[in-house]
Design a protein that fits this description.
Blueprint: E1 5-9, H1 14-25, E2 29-34, H2 37-48, E3 54-59, H3 65-78, E4 84-87, H4 104-131, E5 135-139, H5 152-175, E6 180-185, H6 205-216, E7 226-228
Helix pairs in contact: 1-6, 3-4, 4-5
Length: 236
């Protein structure tokens, strides 16, 4: 039986923490991906207090490709049996303005982190994951524009990430690789990314973390799928 070892990016808070927690409670060994050592240590302390096997943390800054190269070298050395990558980390961009008034530097920064950085990390970890018959799970939102919620920079960055998933899934299948990649839309979730917004239809990180864990552990092949846990709907 292959070792169940997962790297969750942005695992020190929000949805990433919820996913790391519930994967850990279900028997996965966890590696925390975070930008800040203090916050990583705090998350590790909370998780280990629950009996979760946290293997350590890796400094991951998606906006810095050199940092990602260094992070992957650490993973190769310390966690060569990595079999699951959860691409959760990301930034919101400016969700307070409409598309017309979104600044170009905000668009560039958001796409650089949420798409380019995520793709770079995924690309560099593919050899390790393939060796371990691994999987890649992206935490994302639909590419289709919702009249209810549509911050331009964020949605555009995630649409690119969704395209990445679709292309890689097709190519993995065509090449007969022992790799699986799929995307999960958690639905409206109260996190600091959205200012801890609480509206009808929103869920908390406990609910989302548990439901994502059930999906990851369901034993099914989800190659190329975009799975919505809780769709974005406009409340009447």
């Amino acid at each position: 039986m292959k070792e169940r070892l997962v790297l969750v990016t942005g695992a020190n808070k929000g949805i990433g923490f919820g996913v790391a927690k519930h994967l850990g409670l279900s028997g996965w060994k966890v590696v925390i991906g975070a930008r800040n050592e203090e916050r990583a240590d705090q998350a590790i302390s909370e998780l280990t207090s629950l009996g979760i096997d946290v293997q350590g943390w890796v400094n991951i800054e998606l906006a810095d490709l050199k940092n990602l190269e260094q992070a992957v070298e650490v993973i190769k050395e310390k966690y060569p049996r990595l079999s699951l990558l959860v691409n959760n980390a990301g930034i919101p961009g400016d969700m307070s303005v409409d598309g017309e008034h979104t600044e170009m530097d905000v668009v560039k920064e958001t796409v650089n982190v949420n798409y380019i950085g995520t793709f770079a990390l995924t690309k560099m970890l593919i050899p390790i994951l393939e060796k371990n018959d691994g999987r890649i799970v992206n935490v994302t939102v639909p590419s289709e524009v919702s009249s209810y919620w549509h911050p331009l920079a964020y949605v555009a960055s995630k649409a690119a990430q969704n395209a990445m998933m679709g292309v890689l899934a097709m190519e993995f299948q065509q090449a007969g690789k022992s790799l699986e990649i799929f995307s999960v839309h958690p639905g409206p979730t109260t996190t600091d990314l959205n200012g801890n917004m609480k509206l009808p239809g929103f869920h908390d990180i406990e609910t989302v973390g548990q439901k994502m864990t059930e999906l990851i552990n369901d034993g099914q092949n989800h190659q190329g799928e975009f799975i919505e846990l809780y769709p974005i709907v406009k409340e009447d």
